[in-house]
User: Fold this.
Amino acid sequence: MELNFMSENNSQKMQDIIRCLTNLLSIPSGSIPLSRRLGLDWANLSKIPQDMENDIATNIVGKVDEFEPRVSVSEVTFSYDEDGMATANILLEEGDEFGD
Assistant:
């Protein structure tokens, strides 16, 4: 699964946040010793598309809320290429701590 982050703000700070989120969400959950909460649960990837989309979107929103207070997720949608590869399109909004 690929991740596609979108934001109306294209500042350097937002690009840094997107880099951090890409790293966070690319890790299989539970694979980092002493930081088991990092990452997404990859077991969801083998579910049927409707269940996978719901579980992955919920997981993404939760991880962003927990680890990146500078932004929030306003929407997660999914698109598929001709081979069935899923892309999570994640729309970010600036959070209360963005300007700090």
